[in-house]
Design brief:
single chain; mainly beta
Amino acid sequence: MKMQSETFLIFDDAKWKNAGEGMQRMILGYDDRIMMVKMHFDAKAEGSINDLLY
């Protein structure tokens, strides 16, 4: 498993992925200590920390 992304990710190159019902996530960068994720929630969608995990 890859443990680190490139130093900077181009926003336009990142892909949205399904993260549960009514939720999408875009992983913008990560290493073994931190992860930056952009989330989108549809109206009335509910999420938990487990929805963010790979």
